């Protein structure tokens, strides 16, 4: 009995041990199975993200990149590696894949790591709010990617470009991308957020609200920082393609940073064919308006010229109502193109049918000088250069930095001495005056087929039209 009992007890013990062993094995198997399923799911997601990013980026890089490259001025003679990288991007059709932080396909952090404080702005492609990182209390700007109907539910090209370029940039005059975070439902594009360093102002809001224009020394500080940021971008084969005052941020320490890289892209040397539908109308260079598909950093320098004028008067310089009106305003300020002032102008797609005054252009300097009577001769010289009709004649950002305008008195004001302004972004949603945005992808360029500019400087025509003047389409 005792032995039986012992044996039965022994059996029970053995059974229990066996049962425990089996349970453990089962649990381990279950764990391994779940682990495998999770890994497979992650791999599948990664493959899908790779394919989507590759497709979107191929689309982004495509941007009309067909045909043989034209000869052009080099943006910068240096940076062999960047050049090779850009060239390989253009030539091999092998898009670089985006990595949203956390290693190869590591999960980006959740947006829950940030508490929203207030909305700042709803822009063309995104939505920006001020937020605080829960762990550190640091204030940041959260920019949500907006769906572009053109992307048909895929990843938005503008957002991908912005992420890729900002991830690569590291310069004190370019806004810093801290990380990319996601909301719970990662299948929704609008649940992807860029976490950017927060700056209290954008220049447009300041210009709209300030009672007095910037001092000459302050304009110089801002322009020098802008040129420095643009020089960095161009050195790294990046065209911004949407420089304007609302895309220039300023912090309370007088530091300016270039933001909004939704239109930006890498270019090689020579550049590929690119869409001319870039840059907000009021800041768009004449070669773009005339349909060029080969352009370089000079289009950004034209925008810098427009920004220069705006900093002086607090009003956008060339507020055209449409492409024809924009060209008209450009010709009125800068003169009409001639063989001498812009030799390659007639070869531009939209220039062939244009009728221009036979007398040719006026001296651009005199109009600009009259419009900016307080600007020094060096300042007029720089502004004239930036607003040269012929892109070849505009200074590069590096050349601009060396311009005597910045060396002459009054010297650029020290950033630390820059005045401070009440921050709208810090407290309230902005209500802005209506200003145009950069063109949407897929938008049609205006057909300037045959526009008659012959009456542009005729006094009689001006009087008849009450001082203004409009174009005749023929
Ligand atoms: P969109 O691409 O939608 O036009 P932007 O990047 O131009 O968006 O941002 C829109 C506005 O949001 C800017 O004009 C600026 O006022 C504000 N903003 C953008 N980034 C920041 C930032 N890092 N800090 C503070 N405000 C910002």
Contiguous helical run count: 12
Heterogens: adenosine-5'-diphosphate
**Major β-sheet annotation:** 5 strands, antiparallel
Which structural class do you get from the secondary structure elements? Answer: alpha+beta
Strand proportion, as a percent range, falls in 5-15%
Task: Give the CATH architecture of the domain at 201-473.
Answer: Orthogonal Bundle
Question: Can you give the helix content as a percent range?
Answer: 25-40%
Cα gyration radius (Å): 29 Å
Strand order, main sheet: write it out: 1-2-3-5-4
Oligomer: single chain
Kindly identify the CATH topology of the domain at 201-473: Transferase(Phosphotransferase), domain 1
Cα distance spanning the termini: 119 Å
Written as H for each helix and E for each strand, in order along the chain, the element string is: HHEEEHEEEHHEEEEHHHHHHEHE
Low-confidence stretches: 1-11, 49-96, 459-474
Question: What does this 3D model show about the protein?
Answer:
By secondary structure, the protein is α+β, with helices and mostly antiparallel strands. It has a domain at 201-473: Transferase(Phosphotransferase), domain 1 (Orthogonal Bundle). It has twelve helices and twelve strands. A hairpin with a 5-residue loop joins strand 2 and strand 3 (139-145). Helix 5 (216-235) packs antiparallel against helix 7 (298-313) and helix 9 (364-371) packs across helix 10 (377-386). The termini are far apart. The model is unreliable at 1-11, 49-96 and 459-474 (pLDDT under 50). The chain binds adenosine-5'-diphosphate (ADP). Adenosine-5'-diphosphate (ADP) is lined by residues 120-121, 123-126, 128, 141, 143, 175, 196-199, 202, 246-247, 249, 259-260, 262, 425. GO terms for molecular function: ATP binding; cyclin-dependent protein serine/threonine kinase activity. Residues 114-406 form the Protein kinase domain.
């Amino acid at each position: 009995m005792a032995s039986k009992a012992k044996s039965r007890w022994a059996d029970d013990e053995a059974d229990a041990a066996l049962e425990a062993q089996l349970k453990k094995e089962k649990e381990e198997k279950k764990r391994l199975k779940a682990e495998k399923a999770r890994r497979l799911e992650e791999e599948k997601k990664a493959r899908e993200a790779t394919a989507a990013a590759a497709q979107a980026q191929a689309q982004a890089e495509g941007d009309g990149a067909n045909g043989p490259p034209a000869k052009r001025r080099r943006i910068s003679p240096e940076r062999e590696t960047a050049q090779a990288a850009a060239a390989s991007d253009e030539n091999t059709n092998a898009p670089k894949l985006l990595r949203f932080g956390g290693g190869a396909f590591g999960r980006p952090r959740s947006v829950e790591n940030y508490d929203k404080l207030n909305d700042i702005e709803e822009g063309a492609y995104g939505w920006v709010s001020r937020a605080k990182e829960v762990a550190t209390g640091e204030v940041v700007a959260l920019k949500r990617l907006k769906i572009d109907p053109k992307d048909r539910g895929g990843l938005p090209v503008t957002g991908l470009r912005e992420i890729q370029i900002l991830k690569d940039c590291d310069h004190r005059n370019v806004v810093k991308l801290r990380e990319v975070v996601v909301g719970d439902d990662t299948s929704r594009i609008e649940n992807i957020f860029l976490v950017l360093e927060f700056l209290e102002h954008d220049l447009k809001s300041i210009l709209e609200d300030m009672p007095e224009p910037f001092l000459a020394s302050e304009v110089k500080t801002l322009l020098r920082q802008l040129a420095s940021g643009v020089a960095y971008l161009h050195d790294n084969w990046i065209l911004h393609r949407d420089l304007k005052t609302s895309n220039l941020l300023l912090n309370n320490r007088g530091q300016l940073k270039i933001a909004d890289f939704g239109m930006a892209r890498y270019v090689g040397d020579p550049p590929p064919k690119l869409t001319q539908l870039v840059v907000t109308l009021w800041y768009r260079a004449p070669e773009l308006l005339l349909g060029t598909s080969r352009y370089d950093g000079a289009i950004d320098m034209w925008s810098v010229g427009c920004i220069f004028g705006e900093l002086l008067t607090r009003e956008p310089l060339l507020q055209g109502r449409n492409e024809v009106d924009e060209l008209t305003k450009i010709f009125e300020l800068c003169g009409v193109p001639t063989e001498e002032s812009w030799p390659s102008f007639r070869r531009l797609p939209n220039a062939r049918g244009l009728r221009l005054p036979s007398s040719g252009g006026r001296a651009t300097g005199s109009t600009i000088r009259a419009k900016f009577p307080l600007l020094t001769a060096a300042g007029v010289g720089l502004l004239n250069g930036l607003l040269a009709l012929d892109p070849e004649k505009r200074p590069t950002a590096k050349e601009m930095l060396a311009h005597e305008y910045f060396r002459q008195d009054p010297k650029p004001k020290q950033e630390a001495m820059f005045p401070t302004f009440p921050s709208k972004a810090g407290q309230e949603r902005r209500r802005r005056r209506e200003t145009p945005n950069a063109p949407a992808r897929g938008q049609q360029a205006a057909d300037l087929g045959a526009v008659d500019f012959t009456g542009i400087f005729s006094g009689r025509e001006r009087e008849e039209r009450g001082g203004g003047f409009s174009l005749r389409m023929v």
